[in-house]
Amino acid sequence: MGALIKRPRLEIVAETAIECLIRLCGVSAILFVFGIFFFVLREGSQFLFHGFNFREFFFSQEWYPTSQSHVRYGVLALIAGTASVTLLAMALAVPFGIGAAVFVSEFCSRRAREILKVVIELLAAIPSVVWGFIGLTVMNPLIINAFQTPIGLNVLNGGLILALMSVPIIVSIGEDSLKAVPDSYREAALALGVTRWQMVYRVLLPAARNGLLAAVLLGVGRAVGETMAVLMATGHAVKIPTSLMDSVRTLTATIAAELGEAPVHSNHYQVLFIIGILLFSITFAVNLTADLIVRGVRGK
């Protein structure tokens, strides 16, 4: 009888402990995000609140943080470089990624699907510096020969490399979202006499839109936050691009290239952390916009 009485109590304790652990894991994610933001803000706060020129920072193209006579911290060209490379990468990666996810989910044989999923996961596991080497040693001469341009380290090169890096993430998450659509949707659509392509377009894509949007956003996050690949493939020139053949520099590449040489707690050092705050804010804005879009779609 004693064992029978103690057993439920132990189960209740174990269940409570597991519940608390799950809650702690959920809360810890929020705490980690705020902790990272607090650390970045702390490192750049002194210059941010004393001497920071908002207008020059966002609307000037001149980035001369080590000038002896006239220091300038303008990130407009860096923002333009980041945006141009990211937009090109998404223009290439989203249609190919969603198309590949549809193919793997709906049109592949089981054996081919398993092989393709392994290959996609291997592509996602390739380090970014290896992609940077590909952009530097393979894509660079190809672009020079194909477009007769003096240098192949430009927006096109960076966009192609980021697209290749983003596609595996979009395919993997997109395929999972499509497979999560109940089979009853497929059966009902086929029972109505639609073709498989009509079923995909009219039924599966609308049903999986939330997951597909999450896949695209993960791809955008990978492109915006990528460092080594764009550092090696874009030419690292501070200028606003006017064509795909122009060399650019991104926000992340600037932090990676200059943080190690900037004196600790100097203005240059703190401005690099302010760029980190800007990247954090961009990521937050992208996720918030996506959440509002998803809520709007669910409301309809």
What does this structure look like?
The chain has a two-stranded antiparallel sheet with strand order 1-2. The longest helix has 48 residues, at 2-49. It has helices at 2-49, 54-59, 76-107, 110-124, 128-147, 155-179, 183-191, 196-207, 209-225, 228-233, 251-258, 267-299, and strands at 63-64, 72-73. A hairpin with a 7-residue loop joins strand 1 (63-64) and strand 2. 77% of the residues lie in helices and 1% in strands. It contains twelve helices and two strands; from the N terminus they run H-H-E-E-H-H-H-H-H-H-H-H-H-H. The chain has one domain: MetI-like fold (Orthogonal Bundle). It is an all-alpha fold.
Can you give me a brief rundown of this structure?
The chain has a single domain (76-299), classed as MetI-like (MetI-like fold). Helices cover 77% and strands 1% of the residues. The chain has twelve helices and two strands.
Stated plainly, the CATH topology is called MetI-like fold
Relevant CATH superfamily: MetI-like
In total, how many beta strands?
Answer: 2
Count of runs of 4 or more consecutive helical residues:
12
* Morphology: globular
Helix content: over 70%
Tell me the span between the first and last alpha carbons.
Answer: 57 Å
**Could you give a short account of the major beta sheet?**
2 strands, antiparallel
Spatial sequence of strands, sheet with the most strands: 1-2
Beta percentage is under 5%
Structurally, the number of domains stands at 1
Alpha-beta content class:
mainly alpha
CATH class: Mainly Alpha
List unreliable stretches of 5+ residues. 1-5
Average pLDDT rating: 88
In N-to-C order, the SSE pattern is HHEEHHHHHHHHHH
Rg estimate, integer Å: 24 Å
At CATH's second level, what is the architecture? Answer: Orthogonal Bundle
